[in-house]
Design a protein that fits this description.
mainly alpha
Length: 179
C-alpha cells in the first residue's frame, strides 16, 4: 500500500522487518520478479503467438501483446531491461545486483554467462524487423523463434543454477515447469 517502505523492509530483513523474517524470504520475494521473464515474456508474449504454448494451430497471432498499438517488441525489450536492472543493479544502488551476489558466492562464471545471455536476448529483440510481433510472425517467424530460444537460455539458468546457488524458492507458477 502507499507509504510502505519496501526498500527499508528489504534492508532490515531478518533484523526487525515486519515483512521478511529472514534474509532468505526477502531474497525469494525479489527473485520472484525474475520469473516474469519466464512465464509472461518467454511463454505468453512469445511462445503462445509462435504456437509453442496454448495454441491449437501453427501460430496464434491473435495472442500477440499490444495488437492494436503494435509495440510488442518495445514491451519485451523493456521487460529485459527491467530484468537487467535487477540482475546487474542500477545507478541508484551503486550497480549492486544479483550478479555481484553470485560473484561473492564463487559463482562468477554463472553471473557472466547470465549477463551474456541477457545481452544476447536484448540484441535478438533489437534485431526484430518490426515492433509489431504479428507482422514479424507473418514475415519472419524464425526471428521470433530465435528470441524465444535466447530468452529460454537465460530462464533455464535462472530456474536451475541461479535457484540452486542462491537457495531460492521457485514461484508456484514455475515449479515443475520443464520447458
Amino acid at each position: 500500500k502507499s507509504g510502505d517502505d519496501f526498500a527499508g523492509q528489504l534492508a532490515t530483513a531478518g533484523q526487525g522487518s515486519t515483512l521478511f523474517a529472514t534474509e532468505q524470504l526477502a531474497m525469494n520475494a525479489v527473485s520472484a520478479g525474475f520469473f516474469y521473464l519466464d512465464k509472461e515474456v518467454k511463454d505468453l508474449k512469445i511462445g503462445r503467438p509462435i504456437g509453442l504454448i496454448e495454441c491449437e494451430t501453427a501460430t496464434c497471432p491473435e495472442t500477440v501483446e499490444s495488437r492494436y498499438a503494435k509495440r510488442s517488441r518495445d514491451h519485451i525489450k523493456n521487460n529485459l531491461l527491467g530484468f537487467r536492472q535487477m540482475f546487474e543493479g542500477c545507478d541508484e544502488g551503486d550497480n549492486l545486483g544479483f550478479d555481484d551476489l553470485l560473484v561473492s558466492l564463487g559463482a562468477g562464471d554463472l553471473a557472466g554467462r547470465m549477463k551474456a545471455d541477457l545481452a544476447s536476448a536484448i540484441e535478438t529483440t533489437d534485431a526484430l524487423p518490426s515492433a509489431d510481433l504479428a507482422e514479424v510472425l507473418t514475415t519472419d517467424p524464425a526471428k521470433l523463434t530465435a528470441l524465444h530460444v535466447a530468452i529460454k537460455k537465460l530462464t533455464d539458468a535462472m530456474k536451475t543454477e541461479l535457484a540452486t546457488v542462491l537457495d531460492l524458492e521457485l514461484p508456484q507458477n514455475v515449479e515443475g515447469d520443464n520447458d
